[in-house]
Design goal:
Elements: E1 2-13, H1 15-24, E2 33-41, H2 46-49, E3 53-58, E4 63-72, E5 75-83, H3 85-94, H4 101-109, E6 113-127, E7 130-139, E8 142-151, H5 154-167, H6 178-190
Antiparallel strand pairs: 1-5, 1-8, 2-3, 2-6, 3-4, 4-5, 6-7, 7-8
């Protein structure tokens, strides 16, 4: 299991802005990798009530079970455990989770359920002492485009990110986390 502090900045994009960034940074179609995030919570919304996120990310070469806990604005504490394909399949077919310390107490109180998934086509590149992520996400009947920047510190990260957006004449747009966008979209369907 691995724990790290994640400092990130996000901006929603139009499809044209996304394409502009891909062209600007000379990203090729082969630079994109597909990943699928499956999101879990209890019927009583244990994670949502604490502004936490719990997901299984399935990538071509690995599977990650991750808990994200907010520390402060732009900063999350991310705890990740790598899983085998057998463990991944047990979660997806039977909601059978491996023994993970942060899950044991929760599972005693309420069962976990998968409430949705997002497939993301992602490219990434090193940029100004951080990493830029170019995400095209598809969930339910919708899609969105996002630019994300991970930095080592909040102050410099924010300056770099805002400067890049201004340089390319892309308006600053608030971007909820993917899990929140999925929930908001599902809630909008309920009327």
């Amino acid at each position: 299991m691995h724990t790290e502090k994640e400092i990130e900045f996000k901006n929603l994009l139009t499809k044209d802005e996304f394409q502009q960034l891909v062209t600007y940074f000379e990203i090729k179609p082969s630079d994109f990798q597909t990943q699928t995030n499956y999101y879990f919570d209890t019927p009583g919304h244990y994670f949502k009530e604490k502004n936490m996120g719990f997901r299984l990310r399935v990538l071509p070469s690995r599977n990650e079970l991750t808990l994200k806990v907010p520390e402060q604005e732009h900063i999350m504490i991310e705890t990740t455990q790598l899983l085998s394909n057998v463990e991944k399949d047990a979660i997806l077919t039977n909601l059978q989770f491996p023994t993970v310390p942060f899950l044991e107490q929760i599972k005693k109180e309420e069962p976990l359920e998968c409430f949705g998934s997002i497939q993301t086509h992602r490219a990434q590149l090193n940029y100004e002492n951080g990493i830029l992520f170019f995400d095209h996400s598809i969930y339910s009947q919708t899609e969105d485009f996002e630019l994300e920047y991970e930095s080592k510190d909040v102050e410099n990260g924010q300056k770099v990110f805002i400067h890049l957006l201004k340089t390319l004449h892309i308006p600053v747009r608030h971007a909820n986390k993917k899990i929140a966008r999925l929930v908001n979209y599902k809630n909008s369907l309920k009327g």
